[in-house]
Please model this.
Amino acid sequence: MTRSSFTNFSSKYARAPFLLNFLLPTLLLIATPTWGKTRLVPSGYKTIQTAIDASVPGDVIVVAAGTYKERIQLKKKVTVRSAGDDAKGKLGLKRAEATILDHPEGHGPGVTMAEGATLDGFTITGVGQYDDVLWKKHHATKGEEQKHEHIGQPGTPGIEVHHDCAVANNVVHHIGYTGIGITGAKDRRVSPLITVNICYRNMGGGIGSMKGSTALITGNTCFQNFYAGIGHNHASPTVTKNVCYENVRAGIGVSEGAKPVVRKNKCYRNRRAGIGIRTTGETNPLVEHNDCFENDMAGIGVDEEAAPFIRHNRCHHNKKAGIGSRGGSRPVIEINDCFENEMSGIGTEARDTAAVIRGNRCWKNKMAGIGTESGAVAVIRG
Model:
């Protein structure tokens, strides 16, 4: 981001100080001109890690195209960037697709981030064991036979994030766990910027936000991951303008007491819900202005006592309800457009489920506009 574009961004959001305050620390990180040295790999340093070890805050390490069989650990306020411009490739940027960190052996994440560091434009793959047979089995069964693994179970991600930093323009695939794992800290707020990454065919989620993380996760594409495209556990990130499709479970999964803001995402053709929300009454996300369509279950599904606020979403052409709630959940569902779903536009089921449904528009659904069954309780207004 150039100085002029950062100025334009600040002016654009001057009327939304809450958003600017949230983004400002990370945007300053990537907008401030570098004052350090540029170190070239492999012409100046044979490996990326030796260049990082020699660097000081403000340095930029530029890595030429090629395959590097190393795991790297960044240093504070150091940028590691692939060489080249921002020309588009098949999935992401051409420079990211041509600059590969491959990890057939060894231990630890492919990349470990540091405070104020930036990772920009790499392919990260081969961390842990990808199991194609297992992936195909559970994709075929819509994840019904998967273990109920909680997001945040111990594992080794492709990129590990524990600090405020920037992870941008990377392609992360065929990891034995989550592609990008973000974990909060007990003694400080952790709000990294995770943007414009491509995460696919990972044996966990594409991106996982866990244990108090307040990340900004924006503009990423997550598809064909073993669990959710983007998943949450006891975290409160802002998740916006991502595209999540063909994941074995939900496009975006919210569970275990998470309270993210999930806004303006596109979730389609996932094997279960477009956005799936579950586990405990402390799971209270705000889910708004998302487009959820052609999913194999609900567009937005609520289960296991979760209590989200769901508004201004478009849920259409899903194989079950546009928005469905069950399992003792307590959603507030208002001002959504639910149309042309295979079952109801909005549906509730199970005796201990209670939903507030108000001001929604439901049309051309094959079974009902709004349906309740199996003793569910719904307050339906407007």
